[in-house]
UniProtKB/TrEMBL annotation:
Localization per record: Membrane
Name of this protein: Sodium:proton exchanger
InterPro entries: K/Na/Ca-exchanger, NaCa_Exmemb, NCX_ion-bd_dom_sf
Membrane topology: Multi-pass membrane protein
Length: 325
């Protein structure tokens, strides 16, 4: 029970601290005159993935690297099957309202690169640098395209850009003291929450005889994906379920290239045999599921949302049944 309480407290701190960090960082960036478009592509991207990043770093430093790897692979699977599946049940996700074909190709390329590196052995700092280089190239390309696209739409305001990222309440006039407090709350709460979550998850894994990788793929992965899930459900309720699609694709790219890229600089991350045989391929298969919808401009409707969610529950059940040693 104590470990479950630690996990609950850790998740709560991650969600709240991550929100504070994003709001404070966005307000600070806007105060310095940085365009909202650049903020949404950099500060928001890093801030919303901060929980996963801190959990992975804490896991590596606490000598539980399988939790870090499982967190990323499990989060990517959950993002597609669960974070898209549940909103699709509430409101159909249209894929023809925004052209995300190139973003999907980049996500598939990042997925293949990650799988190749994982299959070649433990992830150390040279492999981590390759992943970070890939992230840098993608961010540079997206930033150039976004700036070019905005130049063609001179009427696009900063508020519209931030609203597209779910930050319509961003305050460019936030008092300096409040900005500092938000940043401190985020910077202190994130590592504290991450440590509580990793410690609790590791103890539960040992008590149940389940591997760290399985805990990372299930409990930790779903926990760190809760902010994305909450955002997607909120968008679906507001009739903007299509927004979830872009968020999931961007989050998956960031998870693969940045989180493991940074965590790999803090220590060696071995790749368990089970992950090489099953979980990496489930992640790739889940990613490929989006191809016919995005390239065929097909709607992800209620029944497909149910199928996605059911597939995720079946995957988790299979992991738990086969996760005992």
């Amino acid at each position: 029970m104590l470990d479950l309480v630690l996990i609950a407290i850790g998740l709560g701190l991650l969600v709240v601290a991550g929100d504070f960090l994003v709001k404070g960082a966005v307000a600070l960036s806007l105060r310095f005159g940085i365009p909202a478009l650049i903020v949404s592509l950099t500060v928001v991207a890093f801030g919303t993935s901060a929980p996963e990043l801190m959990v992975s770093i804490a896991a590596v430093l606490d000598h539980a690297p399988s939790i870090a790897l499982g967190n990323v692979v499990g989060s990517n699977i959950a993002n597609i099957l669960l974070v898209l599946g549940i909103p699709a049940i509430i409101s159909a996700i249209r894929t023809d309202e925004h052209d995300t074909r190139e973003s999907l190709v980049l996500m598939l390329a990042a997925t293949v690169l990650f799988i190749v590196i994982a299959l070649l052995g433990p992830i150390r700092w040279p492999q981590a640098l390759i992943l970070l280089a890939g992230l840098g190239a993608i961010l540079f390309r997206q930033m150039r395209q976004a700036l070019s696209h905005r130049a063609e739409r001179n009427g696009t305001s900063d508020g519209d850009v931030l609203a597209d990222d779910g930050l319509e309440d961003a305050d460019a006039e936030m008092p300096g003291v409040r900005i500092v407090l938000c940043l401190l709350a985020g910077l202190i709460g994130l590592p504290l929450g991450a440590n509580l979550l990793v410690d609790g998850a590791s103890d539960i894994a040992k008590a149940l005889g389940v591997s760290d990788a399985v805990i990372g793929l299930t409990l930790v992965a779903v926990g760190t994906s809760l902010p994305e899930l909450a955002t997607s459900i909120s968008a679906a309720v507001k009739g903007r379920a299509d927004v979830a699609l872009g968020n999931v694709i961007g989050s998956n790219i960031f998870n693969l290239l940045c989180i493991i890229g940074v965590a790999g600089l803090f220590g060696t991350i071995p790749v368990p045999l089970q992950m090489r045989q099953l979980d990496l391929w489930v992640m790739l298969a889940a990613s490929l599921l989006l191809v016919p919808f995005i390239f065929g401009h097909r709607v992800i409707g209620r029944w497909m949302g149910i199928a996605f969610t059911s597939a995720y529950l079946a995957y988790v059940l299979a992991l738990l049944i086969g996760g005992y040693v």
